[in-house]
Design brief:
- It is a single chain.
- This protein is an alpha/beta fold.
- 33% of the residues lie in helices and 30% in strands.
- The chain has four helices and eight strands; from the N terminus they run ββαββαβαβαββ.
- Strands 2-1-4-3 form a four-stranded mixed β-sheet. It has a four-stranded mixed β-sheet with strand order 5-6-8-7, with helices on one face.
- It is rod-shaped, with a radius of gyration of 28 Å.
C-alpha cells in the first residue's frame, strides 16, 4: 500500500500567475500593490524571491523573501503549533464490583488527577468468575463514579460491556465552561 504525503507547493518568481500583487517584505510589513514584473525586479535587486502566500485574496498576497528562509519560518510555526497543542491521553482505571471503600477512594483520587490534567479517563469494572452474574453492581459503581465527577467531566461514551469489562469514558470539561 502506498502512502501519499501531502506537500504544499508555492508559486515563486516567474511561476506566479497573477498580474497584480499585494507585496509584503520579509518581516510582514506591507510594501504596497504592484505588478508582478515590478515585484520581480525589486526582488532581483534585493537578491530575494517573490513567494505567493495567499492567492485567493484580491489582489493576491506575495512576500519578497529568500525562499529557504520562508520555508524555515513555516516549519517554525508548525513546530510552535505542535508544542501548544497538548496531546490528550486516555487513562484507564480498573475497578472491581466488590471492592473496599478505601480502594475505591484511592482510584477516584487518580480519576480526579487525570481529569484536572485534561486527560480523558476510562474507568472500567472488571468481572471475574461468577461475578458476571451480578452486573447491577458494576452499573451502581459506574453511576457512583459519574455522580462524583459530574463537576469535572462529562460522559463521552456511556457504559457498555466489552467482554467481561463494563467500561465508560469520561471527558474533562473545559475550564472556561465551568
Amino acid at each position: 500500500m502506498e502512502v501519499k504525503i501531502a506537500r504544499k507547493f508555492f508559486q515563486i518568481n516567474q511561476r506566479i500567475i497573477a498580474n497584480e500583487l499585494r507585496i509584503l517584505d520579509e518581516f510582514g510589513k506591507q510594501i504596497g500593490i504592484m505588478s508582478r514584473d515590478e515585484a520581480l525586479a525589486q526582488a532581483k535587486t534585493d537578491e530575494k524571491d517573490v513567494v505567493l502566500i495567499t492567492e485567493n485574496a484580491k489582489p493576491p498576497v506575495a512576500k519578497i523573501i529568500n525562499f529557504s528562509k520562508f520555508k524555515y519560518q513555516l516549519d517554525q510555526k508548525k513546530a510552535e503549533g505542535k508544542k501548544a497543542a497538548k496531546k490528550q491521553e486516555i487513562k484507564e482505571l480498573r475497578f472491581r464490583p466488590f471492592m473496599g471503600q478505601g480502594d475505591f477512594d484511592a482510584r477516584m483520587k487518580r480519576v480526579f488527577e487525570f481529569l484536572e490534567d485534561g486527560d480523558k479517563v476510562r474507568p472500567y469494572v472488571e468481572f471475574k468468575g461468577r461475578e458476571i452474574t451480578r452486573k447491577e453492581f458494576g452499573d451502581k459503581l459506574l453511576a457512583k463514579i459519574i455522580d462524583q465527577t459530574k463537576d469535572l467531566a462529562t460522559v463521552e461514551m456511556p457504559a457498555r460491556f466489552m467482554g467481561k469489562k463494563l467500561m465508560l469514558q469520561l471527558m474533562p470539561v473545559k475550564k472556561g465552561n465551568v
